[in-house]
Write a structure and sequence with these properties.
This protein is mainly α and 426 residues long. It has one domain. Helix content is 65%, strand content 4%. The protein has a two-stranded antiparallel sheet. A two-stranded antiparallel sheet has the order 3-4. A hairpin with a 2-residue loop joins strand 1 and strand 2. Helix 3 packs antiparallel against helix 4. About 2% of the residues have low confidence.
Amino acid sequence: MFENKINSRCKSAIFFLLMFYPILPMNYYLSIFSFVNICSILIVTIYILGSRNSKIFPVFKYNFFFWMYLIIYAILAISTANFLKGFAWIITEIIVSIILIQLITSEKDIYRIIELIIIASIFLSLIGLIESFSHTYLIQASIFKGWSDSLRYGILRCSGPFGHPINFGFYQAIAALLAFYRLNSKLEKKKKKWYRLAYSLAVITMFLTISRLAICFFVATQLILIILMGQRKAIKYLCIIFLVAVGAIIALDTFGVEGYVFISDFFVSLGRLVGFKGQASSSGIIGFGNRFDLYEWVINDVGSNYIFGKGVGAEFAYKLTDWFTKTSIEVNYLYIYFQCGLVGLIALILSYVGSVRYFWKKRKYSLPNENKLTYIRVLLVILVLYYVCLFGVQETDLTRLHCELISLGIAYYRICRYKCQVLMTH
């Protein structure tokens, strides 16, 4: 379809690496390179070796502000941290995203990338189930050693290769939503069974993270997607959801977890996200201030460095008591402001708003095997709610998945536009 000649074996090898690309742990190293960096370097190397006079698709004019933020962050990383950190960002986030767009040359490639994200989710589901039921972290046990919030309702919050259960929950939520999108495309029966299994496992392990923010994101996004499918299907799916919810509450009660307590905690957490004070009953620890306190602490810490921040990699520390110092910034926007100042924060907001605006304009494009739920429409709903949720979590581990979804959206538009041009010429 497009002038992008690459050895088929090399393309398959890159796709295989892309399955692991968004889920590799960031803090595992081989010499000076993290596993994520090594995976990214392999992708770039194989692409260069396998390319045969490939014509590079000019990606920067598509969703400009997305690329602008990635470049600004790379510049700030080089200037405020070190060259290696900036170089790693360029390879991992920018160049891999460009390569992904170059590789996707057909509708089949789009579905293949989505399938890889879901296959990785199945792998994570198996890890998550083992962690929760064995009460043992398999991959990053040292990070969670002594962590007071690892247990909720008597369940170990699975995290897999991610640095926090919330990030694991978000990955599984997004994978489940992509599986739901594929289930509502034109598929063979065998494929549908496979996607149903993947969807079920992703949803179960997402709930096992006991991450109320990730669960809220999933439920809200799922409901919107169901509504977009039309009245008849919406009623059918809503009835199924109601029955499953009732069954889940009964199951929780059977295992000694009071369902109404979880629901109460869920809404308390939502209140805390928007600034209301409250304490979830699942934790015996009194909350160390609300979100507005955190804004004040970070802004005061940044002080006169508000233009460029305290530097990429700078660590936050606020002494609350003689025995506790807060080191985490649970708001992604605030985290970027702390490290990159107003320059980074404005670039980030422009990137998010620009991405939503870009895909909103492309929402009418569709592929032959899609029904009412097109990838662009699903992506739009995911992005809007995800950006809202970033007021309650750092992106960190999820940056690669975010870049992959955006790149896939750009490639999707490229293919749809090509198909439209072909139809017009005939």
